[in-house]
Write a structure and sequence with these properties.
The chain is an alpha+beta fold. It contains 27 helices and 21 strands.
C-alpha cells in the first residue's frame, strides 16, 4: 500500500513540475470531452420515450404515407383517425386502440380570451400512455360529453394559485359551449407523444383535454370517416404475440376493404400501384422516425462526429506533450532504472501521470457539460421541462468512463515504448539523445492528423456559413425587410371584424402597406394544396393561401400581369360579365403556376377560369378566376422543391396581419399603439418577418455555430501541437542553429530551416483535409434544392481554411524562432 502511495506522490510531483504541459493537456481534453458529453446528453434527451409509459416498445403509433403520382410523399407520423374504428371492427390483436387529435381552445375568462392547446382523445388513451391526474378521474372526464381536463399551467393562467381540488366543478366557456372541469393533470412530460411541440409563447404549456366524442369535436361524420385525410394520431398496445411489423398489413387490409377506397382516383391505383403505405411505429422508434426529425439527427450526428475528431486531436496533443516530457526526462528515467526500477514499475509511474490528467479532465468535462446543458437545450429549442442533465443519464456517465479507459493506453503506449527503448548509460553520462528520426516522423504524423482535422472542420464550417448566408438572402419572390407580423392567438374561424383597426392602419403615416393572411410567408413552409384544372385541361397541384389584396404590395411581390387590388382587367371584365359569374372566387397565381397550367404568358392567364376545391388532390367544381400573376414565389424551405403558388383573395380579417414601413422602430411603435387602441381583447404575438425567415433555417444556423466553435477549438489544439513540436525542434537543434547563425546564415534562412519541419505536416494536412472538407461540404449542399454555386461555396472556405491553418502554424513557431535568434553562442555551445 505504501509503495502505491509513493508512486502516486511521484506522479503528482512530476505533474506539478510540468504545470504548463499538464494544464494544456487537461484543458484540451476537458473541452473535447465536454463537447462530446453535451452532444450525448442532447441525443439521450431527444431519443428517450416518456419513462411513465410501461413497455413503450409495445405501444405503437399507426403511421400513414400517401403514394400520390408526381407528389413528394413522406411518412406523416399520423394517420386518418378512421383506422381506429376499422381495426377494432376487424378485431386485430391490438389493445386500447385510441384516437388523439390536437387543436386550439379559446377560453373566455374575465373579459379576455385565454388560448390553450386542446387535445381530443379517447378515454382508453389514459391507461395506454399512463396519463396521470392530480385531481379527478381523467379517464372518466374524457368519457363525459361536457367534461374537460386542464393542466396546472392552464389552471394558473385561468385562476392564479387556485388549489387543483377547488378547480373541479368549475365551468369554462369556449367556442360557444360550456365545459365542466372534471380533472386536473400535471403538465405533460415533454417526451410524451401527446406533448405540444409547437407551442406559441402566448400559449406556453397551457393544455386542455376533452373526449374525442365530446361536444368539442365539431367534425362532421364525413370528416371523421375520411379515409385519405391525416386528421390525428392513433395509438395502440400490441397484444401478446403480436409484433409491430404486422400492423402495416392490418392497416392495408382495412384500408382496401373500406368502401371509400374504390372512390379514390384511378391513377392512384393504376397498374397495381399502392395508393398508400402503412406501418406500426413503436414509441421507442418514434423519436428517430417522426416526420421532420431526420434532419435534426443528421445535424446532431455531424456535430457528434466533429466532437469525436476534436477528442482525438486533444488525445494526440496529450500524446505529443507526454513524448516531449519523457524525452526531457531521459536522465531521470536512467537514474530510476539504475536504482532498480524495471519497465513495469516505470509504466506504472507514467501510467499514473497520464491517468490523473485524464480523470481530472473527465471530472471537469462532466461539471462543465452539466452547467452548460440547460442553456444549450434551450438554444436548441427544447422545452424548459425537457430533462437533459438533471439527473445525468447513466449511459452518458458510462460513455465518459469508457472514453477515459480508451484514451489511457492510446496516449501512453507510444511515448512509453519510445522511452523504454533508450539505453540508460548515455543519459547518465549527460548525452541525452533525441527520439531519433522515427520518433520525429511519428510526432510529425500526429501533427499532420491534428492539422488535417482542424483544416477539415474549418473548411466544412465555412461551407455551412456561406450556405446559411445564401439562404437568408435567397430571392424568394418577396421581401421580409422592415416587415412586422402580428399573429392573433385564437380560432381563425372566429376572428372578429376589425373596422376601426383597419381604418387606423390605413391612415397611420408610419405604415406604408398592410395585409391580412392565413399564413406567414417567411415562416410557414407548408400549407394547403389543391388540384386546379384550366380550360385547356392542364392539371396542376397548387399551394393555396388566403390573403387580402394588399398582401402583394406589403411583401414587395412583383406583379407581372393584372391587378390584385382591382380584381379586374379588360379581359376579366368582358369574360366575367358575359358569364354572369361575378360571385366567383378571385385568385392570384405566380408565374410558375401560370406556366404549368398551360398559359403562354402571364398576361394570357388573366381572366382565365380554373376549377378546384375537390377532395384531397381530386378535381373539384369550385370556380376561381385569375385576376393577377406575380413573379414566381418560394414559400417552401430551400431543402424542398418550390411549389407553384395560388393566393385566394379575401378582405375579411384573418389571424395573420403584416405591416410594412421604412422605419422599423416607428413601425413597431405604431403597431403597438393601433392594437392597444383598436385591437380585440385577445392574445397576440409580434415578430419581425426577418426573424421568421431565420427560424426556418434555425437548425442550419445552429449546426453552423456548433461546428464553427468545434473547429476553432480544433485549431487551438492543433496550434498547441505545432507549438510543442517547434519547441522540441529548437531544443534539439539549438546548437546547429547557433552555428549556422555564426557562419553567416540570415534569420530568414534559419527560419526556413526550421520551417522544413512543418512542411510535410502542412502538406499532408492539405492533401487529406481539404478534399475531405470539400466532399463533406458537397454532401451537405446536395441536401438543398437551392444552394450556393460550387465555385464560391467550396473554393473560398477551403482556401480560407488552408490559409488560417498556415497562419496558426506560423504563429505557433514565431515565439520560439524569436527566442532561438536571441540565443547567445555561449548558452548553446556551453
Amino acid at each position: 500500500m505504501s509503495a502505491r502511495i509513493a508512486l502516486l506522490r511521484d506522479a503528482c510531483r512530476g505533474l506539478r513540475a510540468r504545470p504548463w504541459a499538464t494544464a494544456v493537456a487537461v484543458g484540451g481534453l476537458m473541452l473535447a470531452q465536454a463537447a462530446c458529453v453535451l452532444v450525448a446528453l442532447l441525443a439521450v434527451a431527444l431519443s428517450d420515450p416518456d419513462p411513465a409509459i410501461p413497455a413503450p416498445e409495445r405501444v405503437v403509433l399507426l403511421d400513414f404515407k400517401g403514394n400520390l403520382p408526381g407528389e413528394q410523399n413522406f411518412w406523416f407520423s399520423a394517420s386518418p383517425l378512421v383506422f381506429a374504428e376499422m381495426l377494432k371492427e376487424r378485431k386485430v390483436p391490438l389493445e386500447l386502440i385510441s384516437r388523439a387529435s390536437g387543436g386550439g381552445l379559446d377560453i373566455k375568462i374575465d373579459g379576455r380570451l385565454q388560448a390553450s392547446y386542446l387535445l381530443l382523445a379517447d378515454p382508453d388513451l389514459v391507461p395506454l400512455l399512463q396519463l396521470p391526474s392530480l385531481q379527478g378521474d381523467l379517464r372518466a372526464s374524457l368519457a363525459r360529453h361536457d367534461g374537460i381536463a386542464i393542466n396546472t399551467d392552464l389552471l394558473r393562467k385561468l385562476w392564479g394559485e387556485l388549489p387543483p381540488e377547488q378547480a373541479l366543478g368549475r365551468r369554462i366557456e369556449a367556442g360557444g359551449k360550456t365545459y365542466t372541469v372534471s380533472a386536473v393533470m400535471p403538465n405533460i412530460d415533454a417526451r410524451n407523444p401527446l406533448a405540444n411541440p409547437g407551442a406559441l409563447a402566448s400559449v406556453g404549456e397551457a393544455m386542455a383535454m376533452v373526449g374525442y366524442d365530446s361536444q368539442a369535436n365539431t367534425r362532421t361524420p364525413a370528416q371523421r370517416e375520411a379515409l385519405f385525410v391525416i386528421n390525428g394520431r392513433v395509438f395502440a398496445r400490441l397484444a401478446p404475440g403480436a409484433t409491430a411489423a404486422q400492423v402495416g398489413g392490418w392497416m392495408r387490409a382495412a384500408f382496401m376493404a373500406n368502401p371509400q377506397y374504390a372512390k379514390l382516383p384511378a391513377e392512384w391505383k393504376a397498374n397495381g400501384r399502392e395508393a398508400a403505405f402503412f406501418r406500426g411505429l413503436p414509441l421507442t422508434e418514434l423519436p428517430f422516425e417522426a416526420r421532420g426529425v431526420e434532419l435534426r439527427w443528421q445535424l446532431l450526428g455531424a456535430v457528434g462526429l466533429a466532437c469525436l475528431v476534436l477528442l482525438l486531436l486533444a488525445a494526440f496533443n496529450t500524446m505529443n506533450l507526454h513524448t516531449a516530457s519523457l524525452l526531457q526526462r531521459q536522465r531521470e528515467t536512467a537514474l530510476r532504472r539504475s536504482l532498480g526500477a524495471d519497465g513495469p514499475r516505470l509504466l506504472q509511474l507514467w501510467g499514473l501521470e497520464v491517468l490523473l490528467p485524464l480523470l481530472l479532465a473527465a471530472a471537469g468535462a462532466l461539471l462543465l457539460a452539466w452547467w452548460l446543458a440547460p442553456a444549450l437545450a434551450q438554444w436548441m429549442g427544447l422545452s424548459a421541462q425537457h430533462p437533459v442533465a438533471d439527473p445525468l443519464p447513466g449511459r452518458v456517465l458510462l460513455g465518459l468512463g469508457l472514453s477515459v479507459l480508451l484514451l489511457w493506453p492510446l496516449t501512453l503506449a507510444l511515448p512509453a515504448w519510445a522511452a523504454l527503448q533508450r539505453a540508460p548509460a548515455p543519459a547518465l553520462q549527460g548525452r541525452t539523445a533525441s527520439e531519433g528520426p522515427w520518433g520525429r516522423r511519428l510526432r510529425q504524423g500526429l501533427l499532420t492528423l491534428q492539422l488535417c482535422g482542424s483544416m477539415a472542420l474549418l473548411g466544412l464550417a465555412g461551407v455551412l456559413a456561406l450556405q446559411q448566408q445564401y439562404l437568408l438572402h435567397l430571392d424568394r419572390g418577396f421581401d421580409t425587410h422592415n416587415r412586422l407580423w402580428l399573429g392573433i392567438v385564437m380560432d381563425p374561424d372566429e376572428v372578429p371584424q376589425m373596422a376601426p383597426l383597419i381604418a387606423a392602419l390605413r391612415s397611420h403615416p408610419a405604415i406604408q402597406h398592410w395585409a391580412f393572411s392565413g399564413m406567414r410567408p417567411a415562416r410557414d413552409t407548408e400549407g394547403e394544396i389543391d388540384l386546379h384544372v384550366s380550360a385547356s385541361q392542364h392539371k396542376q397541384v397548387l399551394r393555396v393561401s388566403t390573403v387580402s389584396s394588399g398582401f402583394f404590395e406589403t411583401y414587395g411581390m412583383t406583379v407581372l400581369a393584372g391587378d390584385p387590388k382591382l380584381g379586374s382587367s379588360a379581359a376579366l371584365s368582358s369574360v366575367a360579365n358575359a358569364a354572369g359569374e361575378d360571385g366567383e372566387a378571385k385568385l392570384v397565381i405566380d408565374a410558375k403556376a401560370a406556366r404549368l397550367l398551360g398559359f403562354a404568358s402571364p398576361q394570357a392567364a388573366i381572366g382565365a377560369q380554373l376549377r378546384a376545391g375537390g377532395g384531397f388532390l381530386q378535381e373539384g367544381k369550385a370556380l376561381r378566376r385569375v385576376v393577377a400573376v406575380v413573379k414566381a414565389v418560394r414559400l417552401e424551405s430551400a431543402r424542398e422543391a418550390a411549389r407553384p403558388q395560388a393566393f385566394l383573395l379575401s378582405e375579411a380579417p384573418q389571424w395573420d396581419l403584416t405591416v410594412h414601413g421604412p422605419d422599423p422602430v416607428a413601425l413597431r411603435r405604431a403597431l403597438d399603439e393601433i392594437w392597444a387602441a383598436h385591437g380585440p381583447a385577445v392574445r397576440h404575438e409580434i415578430q419581425a418577418a426577418d426573424e421568421q425567415l431565420a427560424e426556418v433555417y434555425r437548425q442550419e444556423q445552429q449546426i453552423t455555430s456548433l461546428l464553427s466553435a468545434i473547429a476553432l477549438l480544433a485549431v487551438g489544439v492543433a496550434m498547441l501541437g505545432a507549438y510543442a513540436l517547434v519547441a522540441d525542434t529548437l531544443r534539439r537543434r539549438r546548437t546547429e542553429l547557433v552555428l549556422r547563425h555564426l557562419h553567416g546564415a540570415s534569420p530568414l534562412q534559419v527560419a526556413l530551416s526550421v520551417g522544413r519541419e512543418f512542411a510535410w505536416p502542412l502538406l499532408g494536412a492539405a492533401v487529406l483535409g481539404l478534399p475531405l472538407a470539400g466532399w463533406l461540404g458537397w454532401q451537405y449542399l446536395a441536401g438543398f434544392e437551392d444552394r450556393i454555386a460550387l465555385a464560391p461555396g467550396l473554393g473560398w472556405p477551403l482556401a480560407a481554411a488552408a490559409l488560417l491553418t498556415l497562419g496558426v502554424s506560423t504563429l505557433a513557431a514565431a515565439r520560439h524562432l524569436r527566442l532561438a535568434m536571441g540565443l547567445r553562442p555561449v548558452e548553446a555551445l556551453g
